[in-house]
């Protein structure tokens, strides 16, 4: 399968292309450009998740995910409105458009799956499928051949999994990147510390490789502290499988429990009196020692249903942050208003305008010699 490491050069290229576009957009007099990073980072994360899910059918996958972006826009609009039971079944203009989009996504995916199913035997001869879609198609036809029969995945399941991956993988990671850029713009001392680390380990120009990314300890600490203060998923849910006593409370079987990730991350009893402050140094001795309880840090959930995209998300975020630090110095735009708000995920309510200055434009020619 295409592992996160294998995707690195592709993701790196997408980030470098984005950075180069920012440079061309800069004001020639000041050398600066204002970018709403919350919009731009979605290009990077959409590309990464499309490659993971569709790999060799990248172009077809891109078309499907474009439709899904439109569908998500409808969903987040509905999320902002007052919930009226049954409203989603009414044939309003927006609902009708959503249903149409959903149908089109399904149709495109079913066609793509059909085409890939025909090619699956060749793929098996060459090794195994190189992307998530290939793995699912294999699982849908391999089930009966195993000694322990498992129920094969249906085409419908594959369609739903593709949709889940897109939602779970795109916005979450772009939110992490957005908040990381915002906090680094707010804390120039940490921005500079991280940049020095990146320049020392990866140099000033090349796309960092996996081994180099593994050495970026300060960048990891910053990403963790950002995930602590601004966890993209503010909560997760569990259903009690049996009657249980939790923290002195009797929880009857089948009760749904909300795990308030954000509240746990901001709890001064766990994190100390500076719980609401940005202090990446608390992660200097690793995640398990950052708080008074080893599992107080849960941006990706915990247990059997923990996020399966954690490694991909962190690698993608590290790579993107490293490439940006190599190329730019940045600060918050005066237009930025700090207003984290929950719209399914934790967003900056008024966007995240950040002013970037290319480092090569601020260096004297001597630096290049
Ligand atoms: C910074 C980025 C991300 C964050 C903060 C995040 C967070 C989470 C959280 C909190 C959960 C629920 C875990 C639980 O209830 O214990 C989850 C589940 C999940 N995530 Fe992520 N995620 C991120 C990126 C990704 C990516 C890149 C992918 C896809 C490659 C992905 C795919 C999934 C899937 C499929 C699940 C459901 C797992 C299951 O139910 O077994 N996530 N994620």
Automatic annotation (TrEMBL):
Pfam families: p450 (PF00067). Belongs to the cytochrome P450 family. Heme binds at residue 307. This is Cytochrome P450. One of its GO terms (biological process) is brassinosteroid homeostasis. One of its GO terms (cellular component) is membrane. The lineage of its organism: Eukaryota, Viridiplantae, Streptophyta, Embryophyta, Tracheophyta. One of its GO terms (molecular function) is iron ion binding. It is found in: Membrane. Keywords: Heme, Iron, Membrane, Metal-binding, Monooxygenase, Oxidoreductase, Transmembrane, Transmembrane helix. InterPro entries: Cyt_P450, Cyt_P450_CS, Cyt_P450_E_grp-I, Cyt_P450_sf, Cytochrome_P450_Monooxygen. It comes from the Eukaryota. Its cofactor is heme. The keyword Transmembrane applies. The keyword Signal does not apply.
């Amino acid at each position: 399968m295409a592992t996160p490491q294998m995707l690195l050069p592709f993701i790196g290229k997408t980030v470098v292309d984005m950075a180069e576009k920012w440079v061309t957009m800069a004001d020639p007099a000041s050398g600066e450009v204002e970018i709403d990073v919350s919009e731009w980072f979605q290009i990077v994360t959409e590309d990464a998740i499309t490659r993971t899910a569709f790999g060799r059918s990248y172009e077809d996958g891109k078309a499907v995910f474009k439709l899904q972006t439109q569908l998500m826009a409808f969903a987040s609009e509905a999320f902002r409105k007052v919930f009226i039971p049954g409203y989603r079944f009414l044939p309003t203009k927006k609902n009708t458009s959503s249903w149409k989009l959903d149908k089109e996504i399904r149709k495109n995916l079913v066609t793509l799956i059909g085409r890939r199913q025909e090619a699956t035997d060749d793929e098996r001869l060459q090794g195994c499928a190189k992307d998530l879609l290939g793995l699912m198609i294999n699982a849908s036809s391999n089930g009966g051949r195993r000694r322990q029969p498992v129920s094969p995945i249906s085409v419908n399941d594959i369609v739903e999994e593709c949709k889940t991956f897109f939602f779970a993988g795109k916005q979450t990671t772009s939110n992490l990147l957005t908040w990381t850029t915002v906090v680094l713009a707010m804390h120039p001392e940490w921005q500079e510390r991280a940049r020095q680390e990146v320049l020392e380990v990866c140099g000033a120009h090349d796309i960092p490789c996996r081994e180099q990314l593994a050495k970026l300890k300060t960048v990891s600490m910053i990403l963790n502290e950002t995930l602590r203060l601004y966890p993209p998923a503010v909560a997760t849910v569990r259903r009690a499988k049996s009657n249980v006593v939790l923290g002195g409370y009797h929880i009857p079987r089948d009760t749904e429990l909300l795990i308030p990730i954000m509240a746990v991350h901001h709890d001064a009893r766990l994190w100390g009196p500076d719980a609401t402050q940005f202090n990446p140094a608390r992660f200097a001795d690793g995640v398990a020692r950052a708080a008074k309880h080893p599992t107080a840090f849960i941006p990706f959930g915990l247990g059997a249903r923990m996020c399966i995209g954690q490694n991909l998300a962190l690698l993608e975020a590290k790579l993107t942050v490293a490439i940006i630090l190599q190329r730019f110095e940045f600060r918050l735009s005066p237009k930025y208003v700090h207003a984290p708000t929950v719209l399914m995920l934790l967003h900056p309510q008024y966007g995240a305008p950040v002013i970037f200055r290319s480092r090569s434009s601020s260096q004297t020619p001597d630096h290049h010699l």
